[in-house]
Amino acid sequence: MTALALVAVAVGRTLGWSPVSAQTLLTAPLPGVEAWLADTSLGRPLPDPSTAGPAEIAAFFDGTTERQRVRLAEEHPAVVGNLDGAPIGLRYRANKAATGRDGVLAYDPRGRGRIATVIGDLATAAHVSIVVPGSDISASSRFGRLERMAERLQKEAGEDTAVIAWAGYTTPEGLGIDAATGRLAEDGAERLTLFTRGLDAIGAPDPVLFCHSYGSVVCGLAAAGTDATDIVVLGSPGMRAGTAADLRTDATVWAATSPRDWIRRIPHVEFLGLGHGTDPTDPAFGARTLDASRVPLHSAYFDTGTTTLAAFAAIATGGDPR
């Protein structure tokens, strides 16, 4: 039996993973892009969302009047609401038209949906954190659970901190083969990198990434492309890296896994694309570890009263968590 087969059998027997990949990546342009590109009302082409980077998007909006920006958001809400580099208030305005909610920084209803909401005042925040989730989180499924994590972190960190609940990629469903491979994480890493570059383009503080479960695979692949000051992984199956140095980031890397977390039963291996590599809490990985001994469940790292939440808040505000 090959090493790959051994890994598959070990993982499958441990957690009952299915070999079926159920998720389809969204690669088509957002609805409304064709009308956006055909808009000549400014007397010049509008930036193409598929090729223009966040800095270019920010520069474009800097060259428009308030009246022009509002008109673009009203006529092309699906595009403006998802343009990394567009002004915060304009994205809120565009996405409220689609969702009826305040504080929505991104929203794509296609498939299971992608969404990002802000807890706190992103426009004035001295500190910004992004919570990146793992399996089963989308605009149409369990997003409230992710928002509660962000809300608890923001409350613990204080009013000068904004926390973004970012379900901006197609997450795995359940414990199928998608959760054991990096296919969805690779797409998520590209989207997370663009999202953080968009925050940078509008002058937001460099973020702290809090990456839960499969979200830590996303953050591991995105690490080299973001300007995060810290990357905190919790309940991680691995980051697709042998050591923290392999992430090629200047961010401080932190790791926490509860002794009661079922993720500990997953083999920390990577072979021919299956598995996610070294446990980030392993001393050989080189991350700074946090005490998670009082965390009762895989989903409880942000629970009120845990040592992990207190540590996360300290990291989010640039303090010492120990």
From TrEMBL:
The keyword Hydrolase applies. Residues 108-270 form the DUF1023 domain. Keywords: Hydrolase, Signal. Transmembrane segments: none annotated. InterPro entries: DUF1023 (IPR010427). The keyword Hydrolase applies. GO terms for molecular function: hydrolase activity. Residues 1-22 form the signal peptide. This is Alpha/beta hydrolase. The lineage of its organism: Bacteria, Bacillati, Actinomycetota, Actinomycetes, Streptosporangiales.
